[in-house]
Specification:
- The complex is a heterodimer of chains A (126) and B (225).
- Helices cover 68% and strands 0% of the residues of chain A.
- Chain A has helices at residues 5-49, 69-104, 114-118.
- Mean pLDDT of chain A is 80; it is low at 112-126.
- With 225 residues, chain B is mainly α.
- In chain B, 72% of the residues lie in helices and 0% in strands.
- Chain B is built from 11 helices and no strands.
- In chain B, helix 1 runs parallel beside helix 10, helix 4 packs antiparallel against helix 11 (199-223) and helix 9 packs antiparallel against helix 11 (199-223).
- The chains are: A mainly alpha (126), B mainly alpha (225).
- At the A-B interface, helix 1 and helix 2 of A face helix 1, helix 3, helix 5, helix 6 and helix 8 of B.
Chain lengths: 126, 225
Amino acid sequence: MTTPFATRAAVSRFSSWGGVAVFFALAIVGLFYVKWSPYYAKAFIAAQDHTLGASIVSGNLPASPGVSLQAGFAFSIAYLKAIWQALLLGLVLGAGVEAVRRAFGSASFFPARRVRCAQPLLRSPP
Amino acid sequence: MMCTCCCAPIAVGLIESGASASSALVYWLANPVLNPAALVFIGFVLGWQWAALRLVVGVALVFVVGDLAARLVSPDWRPPGAPTRPDNTGQPLLLVWGRAFVRLAVRLIPEYVVLVFALGMVRAWFFPAMTPDIGHAIWLTTALAAAGTLFVIPTAGEVPIIQVLQQFGLGGAGAAALLVTLPAVSLPSLAMLGRALPIRALIVLGLGTFAFGLIAAAAAASLGL
């Protein structure tokens, strides 16, 4: 027994709109948690102290550490600690853009390139 | 509001979903360069004249470099890694989303981590030891514009870098070059975009950022910053 085609299309259309809602909710909550909220707090610290702390390149020194594996590890850890949440959000949103566009199965998202997008999508339900 | 690397997966997703290269590139460049939080930090830490310089040169950079690079992407350009089977319509959206996430992560992250490690290891080559003697040299300004184009930093990471170097004698021109080039692009983020754009567009993004670093340096020098 199979679901009638029209019902299936309707369900999938409904879940597509749900997906768009989830996408925007994730974008707003994620940006608030990773970016807006911490930066708002940081702005007051910057206003008060006139500094954001040590440089990721050279700390508080005029020169960077010489070329060594140790320098690579220290920088990688400091850098990844600072950005991993934002990178995760970027991957989730980047994948979300693709997923939502494909779930809709239409080229209506980006009309500028409609012709090219529409061609491989002809097989999607009407 | 994101740094150039964290924003790169979104730009790749946009291009592979069929967005025009110019809109994706303007979005990608504006995120770090015109980040309002970074502008506020620059204002409080370095001074509001620097925030104004970053805003003015940054707007020009975003639209000029983004548009120039997009012109090199032909209208029938097909991202090499883009999914060729678009008929996923019947599948649950979360499944499609999860698969897209894994696909992006596997393609982008390993190369990115290796490049970050390599840049961190040789960062002494990018940033010469600062002294008041070399702080205003033209060769240093040019070198810092190139270093800022290639080197990778977290959001607003350019602010402490410039502040510390200024304390040891960095002049206005070099500071301006770093202020514009450090956040805009980096070797790892260009490598990520390389999954979705032709190499000539990447070269224009890099050279354009370098050129706008020099423009910012010239502006700072003539304004006496």
